[in-house]
Amino acid sequence: MSHHHHHEVSGKNLLLTIILNIIITVSQIAGGLISGSLALLSDAMHNFSDVMALVIAYGANRLATRPSSKTRTFGYKRAEILATLFNASVLIGIALFLIIEAFQKLYHPEPVDSTWVIGLGLLSIVLNVLSVLLVKDDAHHNMNIRAAYLHLLTDVMTSVAVVVGGVLMYYYELFWIDPIISIVIAVYLLGASYGLIKESASVLMQFAPESVELDALEQAIIAYDEISNVHHIHLWRLSDHSIHLEAHLDFKDDLTLSASEQIIESLEKELHERFKITHTTFQCEYARDDNKAVIV
After folding, report:
1. CB contact burial 141-165 (16+ within 10 A = b; e otherwise)
2. How far apart are the C-alpha atoms of 181 and 82, rounded to whole Å?
3. In angstroms, what CA-CA distances link 127 with 58, 111, 118, 120, 130?
4. Which pTM value belongs to this model?
5. Which of the residues 116, 121, 255, 273 could staple to 259 if both were Cys, CB 3.0 to 4.6 A apart?
6. pLDDT one-digit tens code per residue, 146-203
7. CA atoms of 113 and 35, how far apart (whole Å)
8. Is CATH 3.40.50.1370 the right assignment for the domain spanning 214-285?
9. Is 1.20.1510.10 the CATH classification of the domain at 11-204?
10. How is the chain split into domains, by residue range?
11. pLDDT digits (tens, 9 = 90+) for 234-290
């Protein structure tokens, strides 16, 4: 039995957000190189990470809807997860590079043309606020979009920090503030990317979803009068939204196929409602001598 609720990410909003973030990224890279500001370059990389996450979400969401085939029985459901892992890994590399550069700049501070920093920081704030509003709805349904949405929100904060730094450099010539802001942004990038790597890797490694408590799941199954035992449980996430369960069920009596089918149907409905399990495969057994451990 399978319940499929695949949320379509609205293409037009996503495309607009991608364009806005490409504008921010390109202008900040150019501005960072012209002004000598590492904080602007760091903010550009932060924005570039959003572009990556959004492009991946857009492409992978299209790919994930492609039908299954004889050679790909699960279809392309994991395209998004792979893409998230790749994106986050690239970001960790970028963040480490920025931290090393920032420390070098701290030891040898150079003057920064702060008018560029202020102007482009303000542009980034405006376009990021627009982007946040555009992807807000889709963020509830999709891991990649949720990641990008959180990035966009923090982009607003980091751009505010960049503008404040620009103002301090403009009036007080405190050029050491530039690498400090860069380090703060890079450290944030590291933290956010680590979380994404952890989550996507757990899906690829077929770890049980954290949202499902295995003991509670076991109790829900053996609460049925006709079932004496559940064992050989495998629980995993196929993608961001689909949770699969397979298990062996010991029945107390030698039931007919139609009688056991009725119980299974009721059980599947309950597991979907309580634990959001979208696909189940049960092996029904009676007086079978096999390993009765829950996890084999």
Report:
1. bbbbbbbbbbbbebbbebbebbbeb
2. 31
3. 19, 27, 15, 11, 5
4. 0.81
5. 255
6. 777 877 888 898 899 999 999 999 999 999 999 999 999 999 889 988 988 999 999 9
7. 5
8. no
9. yes
10. 11-204, 214-285
11. 999 998 779 999 999 999 999 999 999 999 999 999 999 999 999 999 999 999 999
Question: What's the mean pLDDT when you consider all of the chain?
Answer: 90
Two tokens at 190?
A: 């590291």
Structure tokens at 160: 């505010």
